[in-house]
Amino acid sequence: MPLTRCALLAIMFCAIATSCSEPGDSEVPDTRQAKEACEARGGIWDRFGKLQAKRCNLPTKDAGQPCSDSRACEGWCVAPEAADVESSATGSCDTRVLRFGCFNELDQGTVRLQCVD
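and the corresponding structure tokens:
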């Protein structure tokens, strides 16, 4: 019985290790075709985020539109730079779908500090 448990744990570990090293759902395979397709749509093909995964950062169709919540935008609803966290504000929809690092986002009209890895 202990051998069966060890074998099962070894299989589970291998499955987890393999799934962690494979591209995530939102990551696009690093191929020339993917890069060309991304750039043809106005995207920026690069490594993004803490994991430096290759992704296509597409422009948003609603860039610059006024917003009070990120759910109203293709990307993020970004607060004005001068807005204080927890204050009320109106922002604008971001120019790109992906945004990493820390920035002020609008959540139901309230400025919130958002950090994305």
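(Above: one complete record from the training split.) The helical segments are 2-21, 32-40.
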